[in-house]
TrEMBL record:
Belongs to the IS21/IS1162 putative ATP-binding protein family. This is DNA replication protein DnaC. Pfam families: IstB_IS21. SUPFAM superfamilies: P-loop containing nucleoside triphosphate hydrolases. Keywords: ATP-binding, Nucleotide-binding. NCBIfam families: IS21_help_AAA (NF038214). InterPro entries: AAA+_ATPase, DNAC/IstB-like, IstB, IstB_ATP-bd, P-loop_NTPase. GO terms for molecular function: ATP binding.
Amino acid sequence: MSQLEQTVSRYRSLRLSAAADELTSLLAEAEANEMSYLSFADRLAEHELIQRQDKRIRRNRKMAAFPVEKRLEGFDYRHQTTITKRQVNALLDFQFLDERNNLVFIGPPGVGKTHLAIGIGHKAVEAGYRVLFRNALDLVEELELAEMKGELKKRVSALAKYDLLIIDELGYLPMTRQARYNLFQLINSLYEYRSIILTTNKDFTSWGEFFHDDNVAVPIIDRVIHHSHIFMLGGESYRLKQKVTS
């Protein structure tokens, strides 16, 4: 075994896989730039840290389960004029996550609520936060299944491990009594502990319609909006406009 092979093997034993994989090229770079021993040691550490961070971001992005690829860079602020790029960019320091605040996007279908939620979610992943996306209907079914198995508390605890839970399209379909109870358990467990991005087509005064029970709607609304940034989005459907003009 050559000295290079032996060194690579030792790096792998120390779980420095990124440095091991690129040691030959890193050595060539050091020689070409006449690096000092300390500079080379720092370059190895830098390379390992960057690769680990990239790997963690890729893993967390996959775990987030975004349904489509939507980025803030592709959001059309010219069409959606009820929210500005400045307002969205102000959220990207993620103070709202650090302070366990929520974001609520309210508006009719097709005005960009989901696009914004996913776009902010991607940025949060890149900033090192753990994110999970769930369509509201899928989330309700997920909680109902857990409740039927006697595992509701376990499932709620698992969801609460994420720094940010995105709940998309709440309010499009009515909910059963058990579904309302399960959702309340989740929202209550996240309250002042984790952050939520919520998109909905109904303002808070209409939540009683799909909950069929103001006694449940009120405490859920109270916990969602207590620490939240609320954005009312208007305008015509972007999807409909694209279809008409195509």
